[in-house]
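Archive transcription. Copying these from loose printouts into the bound notebook so they stop getting lost. Printout 1 of 2:
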Amino acid sequence: MTRKAKIIATLGNSTEELLEEIVANGADAVLVDTYYGSPEECVSRINKIKELREKLDKNTAIIYDLDHIYAESKYKLIKIEEDNVHFACQNDVDFVACPFVSNLDEIRKVKSILQANGKKDIRLIVKIDCKEAYENIDEIIQFADSIMINRDELGMELPYQDLPGIQKEIIRKANTAIKEVILTTQMLHSMIYNPRPTRAEVSDVANAVIDGVDAIMLIEETAIGSYPKEALETVDKIITYIETQDKVKGNRSSDHKNRQMDIAHAISLSTKYLLDSVDVNNIVTYTKSGTTAKFIARYRPKVQILAVVPSEEKARKLALTRGVTTFIEEKTLSMEEMLSLAPKFAKESGLAKEGDLILITAGQPDLGKDNVPPTDFVNIRQV
């Protein structure tokens, strides 16, 4: 079974000898942070990941955690360090993780720097790591490409008993908005020092998957922990098991019952209902930007989504999207070619075998209306 929820490993001294294994088997994305290494060490790690993903034919995404400046009086963010945004551009990462700094102006500035450097395709992850971020969550979700719930820092400003409900609320809102949501901090904290997790940690990871997170991120467990390999294996095992138990929440289709929707939206939703009626083994969706795959993933289908994309860069932009595996086809295909080649792509990706049924759909470039790409067709074929 292919795991749907994604895993992010933070790199540090503990991962130096494990990078090849992390790219080959351990993580869908890695986070590089100057907190766990000098700028020179960060450059070395970024370059090594790029070499390994080419060597191993993987699309492991690289996230760079932007540095920030703190007020002297309190653990309070006041400014994004612009040099670090330029660093991310120069090193051609796939995502930047940006802390919230009490208002959206600093975050908007990050996007403008990315665009000025010709790097508008670098996706912006905004951290929900303070009270102001939570209070502005609706606006942040609208602006950001992805959301990261940083419970450690968030818990310093909000009552601890409120955190579970806040976590669920943010996950639900991000799912509805078709934005990836990452949960992090102290996921398997005890495994920094021990080879086995606590029962509470196992439940924490499992419940996050059930609630609908796209990705679980390990920080100290992999960056400085004594058991980084075991921590990655543990979170993989928990996710894989819980996804077989049929307890993972699909997106609430009732959210759309009383809402007018265009044809593309309706066809994407119909994909979910078709899966409930027909025993298909996976979805093959053709998408130039990745938007169609994200839109289908919103409904948390029970089977894997194979997104056929035109480049490795586009594939890495889907590395954090739950339930999506990518296949690269650089050639622009006709509808007939899409239909005839889909079974071949599904077999080569290991998601289907001879005799299986697959559901095929395709999207054209986004027209900018409600972030919904026009979807041309839905077709079911036998491999």
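Printout 2 of 2:
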Amino acid sequence: MTDTQIADEMIETIRRWVDKEVVPNASELEHADEFPQAMFDQMNEFGLFGATIPEEFGGLGLDVHTYARIIEELARGWMSLSGILNTHKIGATMIERYGTDEQKQRFLPRMVDGNYRAAFSLSEPDSGSDAAALRCKAVPDGDTWILNGTKMWVTNGVRASIVMLLARTPDDRITCFIVEKEPGSSFEGISVSKTIPKLGYKGLETVEMAYVDHRVPDANMLGGADGMGNGLRYALSALELGRINIAARAVGVGQAAFDAAMRYAQERETFGVPIFEHQAIQFQLAEMATKLQAARLMTYDAADKYDRGDRIDLEAGRAKLFASEAAFEIASEALRIHGGNGFTQEYDVERYFRDSPLMIIGEGTSEIQKMVIARKLHERHAID
């Protein structure tokens, strides 16, 4: 567990930076869909890309509870910043948890530096939540594997140096390969075939990537020989942490929307009084604050259980489901409290409104989370 004082000091440092550098500049960068290079550089200087990588590999070795608090603060300033970290964290977790000793030594020390960034490639044009239907092929050829296929919704795809890619081998099993590439739109049979325009989550590329006869060495099969056919299990295990990230993002966006609504309600006057004095507005804010705190506590509970070594498939699913839906509702109510001003780009609340749906969809939709939750409830409470 991370020392409480160290964690609190780190969170306070990030909070001050978010308030000073991120909040005043986020909307301008977001509207221009511009990558926040200066913010990325500062995140890298803070050591955030190695936040949970063990100290033996040069990382900070923080626990997941502290990591969730960091994500919450980043998302409060601009949700896209937390997205830069998420796929990197998933990749590092997969290598730390399932990689061979050689793979850990080769990749994790470099991943402490955010300039050596990871992307995650599971989804395909015809395979999203139905991950088992993926079609990307990996065919052996001597001591290499030849990859062919198309991957969708790849965050960090252009700037990534490694991609955790899942492909189907000739024995019809799904295996994860660590694909090494140079940052950029094309590299040895890998190309960005489309940049996907989005409602929100701007400033960070989300792309479609095509693989045509790209070769990966045997040494880059995650887990070595033991990893053959275990790619989907490895990915779904790491996505539990991804769901904590999404839940923490949702809490951050919800906090930003709530803060904006509280501030506006006390500044805007109608009928000679601040609109906060109207009971209808008070009731809205009361419900928003309650949902926000419940989402935060569920997120921290899932993180704490992970740090204790417990299974968190149920807890991560519940936190992600509740927090993402709460963030969307809070952002919607915040926009309504702003009235016509909320529909303009002069107030940040419109950005929170556009960013919030991503958390409902990313890392498994709310409907998928309900299926996971129901299945795990049945496992834990089955009648003999």
